[in-house]
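note to self — DONT lose this again. spent like an hour looking for the file last time. sequence + predicted structure for the chain T wanted, 295 res
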Amino acid sequence: MDIKVDSTDLPGLYQSADSASLREQKKYFRAIGIYSILLVFAALFAFWSDGSENPTTNIISTLFFLITLSIMIWLRVSKPDDIWYNGRAVAESVKTRAWRWMLRAEPYEDCEDVEIMRKRFVADLKTILKQNESLIGKLGISASVAEPITDKMLQVRKLTLPERFELYRKERILNQALWYTKKAKFNKRKSTLWFTTTVVLHGLAIVLLLYNIKEPSLKLPIEVIAVAASSVLTWLQSKKHNELSSSYSLTAHEIMLIKSESNRITTESELSEYILNCENAFSREHTQWVARKNE
């Protein structure tokens, strides 16, 4: 057996929600990044204009502050982060349901007429979509034209119990464990990088302040550096690298522990329970991730 399951083999709703989530995530972080950079430039031009009779630098600084204010208002009104999180929630819910259906796990157990389970699955997708109506306008038309149950999903559902068990361990559990491990390391590196940058900027501001005590006649860009340090901190907080690193690392360990709970499944009920435990672990991390956004 050499069957692989990737995102294109999942329902169209998953692909649309995933794309919408990634798109809005990029918008959100792009806006935060531009806001932080322009804030530093605004402070820099304000510093240059201090004591200058030329109003140009003051005008430029004012324009930068107006742009940053506009970005802040746009983030508040448009709320791309809400769409990002809601899209992720829908995508993960659909993915979990799809794997349960493929593996004949609760509530899509084996039955003589697969059409019954097909209708139940489609009804569940409708419920997920109805609970997230604010996302509908961002999904595009692909969700409405793609099949909710793909040929690969049907192919997997027809496999024998041992084949489905091995496929799930390889294509779902191991895949998720590797993903969470990779993301935990990535966020750990980024957290260290941006924290170090903040410390360096604060240290530089302190050095300049002390030097300014010795040479009070010098005009030093202490406020600009303070704004830069604040901007880096804003970026670090929006990315939540440290929190994500801890959460992803914990989930990766939990997944591997669950994977090791059983090396042999002999009944459909055992497989269903095994899958529910694994999917609950995935859902638990995601639920905590969504809760952090609302803090």
